[in-house]
Every structure is written in C-alpha cells, then in structure tokens.
Specification:
mainly alpha, 4 helices, 71 residues, flat
Length: 71
C-alpha cells in the first residue's frame, strides 16, 4: 500500500502529561482527537524511544495491539 505522507513531531511527553492533568477540558478534547483521528499517531518518550500510547489508526496500520507496541 502506498503512503501519501508521514508527519513526525517530537514532544516532551512529561510536559504534555503535566499540562493535560491541569486542563481537564483539554484532556477530554485531546483524548477524543487522538482516539478518533484517522491519522496514525504515536506518543513516544523522547529519552527512551518507548511508545507510550498509540491511537487505533496506528494499531491498525502497524498490525499490533497497544500492549505489543509498548514492548
């Protein structure tokens, strides 16, 4: 299958988690956008390269469960 484009963004997941914890409405919107978006999205811890979260589109694209992607 041909892929039209890839977008990669580096984000400090600790900063994101801290900010979301303080902003409940933003957390709800972020969770909704992350879980329902058709774009493949991964949250990756920059220091370790560990996958922290993967949306359903990413799990379908890569063919792995969330638990498998996190290992």
């Amino acid at each position: 299958a041909e892929q039209d484009f890839i977008v990669v963004t580096e984000l400090n997941t600790k900063v994101l988690k801290d900010w979301l914890a303080k902003n409940h409405l933003a957390t709800t919107r972020f969770d909704f956008m992350f879980q329902t978006n058709t774009a493949t999205m991964l949250l990756i811890e920059p220091e370790s390269g560990r996958i922290v979260e993967a949306n359903p589109a990413a799990r379908n694209f890569y063919g792995y469960s969330l638990e498998e992607l996190k290992t």
